[in-house]
Design goal:
Low-confidence stretches: 1-19
Oligomer: single chain
Strand order of the largest sheet: 1-2
Structural class: mainly alpha
Length: about 210
């Protein structure tokens, strides 16, 4: 029975490894994520600049050439006023989205439904807590068949997640940043520990 379970686990791990994203796809999405981090600021700058330049030809006749205010040409004050107006309109839309209609609730619901870490994938921090509760449950409810069945499921779930990059990055952080000499995860066998360490070593080349 034990050998059969181990073979099933290894087979599942192998299938998971084979279905992991291609290296180029993962690299591309990492660059895409980096670009997204500045997207809001850059988009706002483009919106303000573009709309200001589009609106200016229709209102520039209101601003006389050569007139200054506080030592600055009235033309620049006009452009600044248009840009500020665009930002206020965007802020007003944001307030309507947030306060009036509360669309962010449905937005967050959709994000949660599409987030693998709220459905089938686990973060290492959560995994450590789950490991501890699983160990305790095995000790206090060893005679409960349903409890042991649940523990077996949790072990399979943990082993499935070990091949994800976030576990390798966490292990790397434990070793290199926290400087822990033995970040031990009790539910892994020797082969899985070696595979995890190999993933940690590969991160140094990324």
């Amino acid at each position: 029975m034990g050998s059969t379970s181990m073979e099933d686990t290894n087979t599942g791990a192998s299938s998971h490894s084979e279905s992991s994203p291609a290296p180029f796809k993962k690299w591309f999405m990492r660059q895409y994520w980096r670009i997204q981090q500045s997207q809001t600021i850059i988009s706002m700058a483009f919106w303000v600049t573009t709309l200001t330049l589009l609106i200016w030809p229709y209102v520039k006749w209101r601003f006389e050439d050569g007139v200054t205010f506080a030592g600055i040409s009235i033309t620049y004050w006009g452009l600044l006023g248009i840009g500020a107006s665009v930002m206020l309109v965007v802020l007003l839309v944001g307030l309507i989205y947030d306060v009036t209609f509360g669309l962010w609730r449905e937005h967050m619901t959709i994000i949660g439904e599409r987030n693998p870490f709220q459905t089938y994938q686990m973060s290492p921090n959560f995994a450590v807590i789950l490991i501890q509760t699983n160990i305790l449950l095995r000790k206090i409810a060893a005679d409960d068949e349903e409890a042991m069945r649940h523990c077996d499921f949790v072990d399979r779930w943990l082993k499935w997640n070990i091949d994800t990059e976030i576990f390798a990055r966490t292990m790397s952080g434990w070793q290199n940043i926290v400087e822990d000499e033995d970040p031990f995860l009790p539910y892994l066998d020797d082969e899985q520990r070696e595979r995890l360490q190999h993933s940690v070593d590969e991160l140094k080349t990324l």
